[in-house]
Amino acid sequence: MKVAGFELRRIAMPLVAPFRTSFGVETARDVLLVRAATPDGDGWGECVAMAAPLYSPEYADGAAQVIERFLAPRLFAAGESLGPLDVARLLEPVRGHRMAKAALETAVLDAWLRVRGESFGSYLGAVRDRVPAGVSVGIMDSIPALLDAVAGYLDQGYLRIKLKIEPGWDVAPVRAVRERFGDDVLLQVDANAAYTLADAAVLGALDEFGLLLIEQPLAEDDLRQHAALAQLIRTPICLDESIESAKDAADALLLGACRIINVKPGRVGGYLEARRIHDLAQAHGAAVWCGGMLETGLGRAANVALAALPGFTLPGDTSASDRYFAQDVTEPFVLADGHVAVPTGPGLGVEPLPDVLAALTTSTTWLPA
Ligand code: OSB
Ligand code: MG
After folding, report:
1. Greatest C-alpha distance within the chain
2. Has 2 been annotated as catalytic?
3. Cα–Cα nearest to 82, from 176, 186, 3
4. ipTM > 0.85?
5. Could you tell me if 87 and 211 lie in one domain?
6. Which of 221, 309, 314, 350 is the 20 to 30 Å CA partner of 362?
7. CA-closest candidate to residue 29, choices 14, 10, 17
8. C-beta 317 within 6 A of ligand 1
9. Same structural domain for residues 92 and 190?
10. What band does 344 get if pLDDT is binned at 50, 70 and 90?
């Protein structure tokens, strides 16, 4: 496939409400989109790097720069023969920058699938036409505010609640949610690496609440300490930030650092590596679920397709568009009976709405081959 060039497009998406985690507060999503232009049509990839390097070392400006200076030229050098399976191999000499690489691979894969008339879901191996939707609930100023937010999401039909936690906002909010909504709610927590092994007692105090999992309690490079923590608490440990590749996933599972993996395609370098993690976890008997990074409809479309693979046995952070955005860049993903439909059209199966995209765009850079 001939790629004539990549367009880097930055868009500013206001959030419907501030989203607070242990690493910061977001009020708007500053998104880098990549459009692969080919003679047969376009392909889109959403870079999940956030504006600041607080969740991971990557950040949107840096991703745009590494694409322009180091990644796109390597793909252009491949000439006419570039296919989606070549992208990761061609970019492999550049260390890290997995979110930037994932955006390029996704754009090339989308363009390629659109030409073949095949959907992401079909290509990746989806076995469902809709996926159960969970929702990630940020840290709030008070327990009553949290209970109101959770009540609203349950009313909308969300099938699983994930509470963001940090030291000082952990046992009390979990207890309050259990007391108000009961033991049947599928409930889990995400610490975004905010604790240390010295906090094992407070993390163990969560055992009594029957959580599905605790996500990334310790630092991203603390695999051995996660394994040690797993011996001290009953709640299953799920890793997010620690898993940047299928190799990391294998290490974590072999070490006993986690029993569950949050698969975020951007964090691991793309949907093909994400599928490898799915396959590996399935072989190991470990559960995976699809995480999110406040994606627009473009990234959400691909995530929902991935979440339809057979090993994704837990509900993901595959919420409806209106969880974050009053106006999405694509037709919105909506919740129906607690589920989100897997797109069936070629490629991502969704397109940016031209007028909306134009109105949200803050800059564009054209990188010619
Ligand atoms: O840790 O899963 C995370 C959002 C941004 C960065 C990291 C995380 C999150 C979320 C929300 O929890 C996921 C989503 O709803 O898209
Ligand atoms: Mg997480």
Report:
1. 60
2. no
3. 3
4. yes
5. no
6. 350
7. 14
8. yes
9. no
10. very high
